TrEMBL record:
<dbReference type="GO" id="GO:0003677">
    <property type="term" value="F:DNA binding"/>
</dbReference>
<keyword id="KW-0238">DNA-binding</keyword>
<feature type="region of interest" description="Disordered">
    <location>
        <begin position="1"/>
        <end position="33"/>
    </location>
</feature>
<dbReference type="GO" id="GO:0017065">
    <property type="term" value="F:single-strand selective uracil DNA N-glycosylase activity"/>
</dbReference>
<keyword id="KW-0227">DNA damage</keyword>
<dbReference type="InterPro" id="IPR036895">
    <property type="entry name" value="Uracil-DNA_glycosylase-like_sf"/>
</dbReference>
<dbReference type="InterPro" id="IPR039134">
    <property type="entry name" value="SMUG1"/>
</dbReference>
<dbReference type="GO" id="GO:0000703">
    <property type="term" value="F:oxidized pyrimidine nucleobase lesion DNA N-glycosylase activity"/>
</dbReference>
<dbReference type="GO" id="GO:0006284">
    <property type="term" value="P:base-excision repair"/>
</dbReference>
<feature type="compositionally biased region" description="Acidic residues">
    <location>
        <begin position="19"/>
        <end position="31"/>
    </location>
</feature>
<keyword id="KW-0378">Hydrolase</keyword>
<keyword id="KW-0234">DNA repair</keyword>
<protein>
    <submittedName>
        <fullName>SMUG1 glycosylase</fullName>
    </submittedName>
</protein>
Length: 145
């Protein structure tokens, strides 16, 4: 198992930067391509998640980055989800300075902005915790995990 996880992780590392080299003149409005189908599936799953009853105490704030950080998330998916890949995500803890800021899984702002070259506007969530403001791609804090 460890060997296949290492191979998968290596494949992700090799595939991510190569996506920049792909032709950027592709039709981004094609909703029948792999990225478009993936984004539609995410929207369907997000709608089911939003339909769940709200959390009670002690939970005071719940962030939904696929709502307020949809633009950079779509840019990420359209850049790096063009062809089928063998990838295994182990856990999806967005963290306050990772996906919660950028909409990109495991994506603290510096890496998303500088290494992945993802762009897009990030809105403020409807209810923002005062100690965990959403600054989007301008966030300077790094995720510690």
């Amino acid at each position: 198992m460890e060997e296949s996880v290492a191979e998968t992780a290596g494949m992700v590392t090799e595939l991510m930067p190569a996506a920049e080299e792909e032709d950027e003149d592709d039709d981004d409005d094609n909703h029948d391509d792999l990225a478009g189908r993936f984004l539609r599936l995410e929207q369907e799953q997000n709608a089911l998640l939003q339909a769940l009853p709200p959390f009670g105490e002690p939970v005071s704030h719940v962030y939904h980055p696929l709502d307020y950080a949809w633009e950079p998330h779509c840019d990420f998916v359209r850049r790096y989800c063009r062809t089928p890949k063998r990838v295994l995500f182990l856990g999806m803890n967005p963290g306050p300075f990772g996906m919660a800021q950028t909409g990109v899984p495991f994506g603290e702002a510096w890496h998303v902005r500088e290494w992945l070259r993802v762009v897009g506007g990030v809105k403020k969530p409807p209810s923002e915790h005062p100690k965990r403001p959403v600054l989007g791609l301008a966030c300077r804090r790094a995720e510690v995990s």
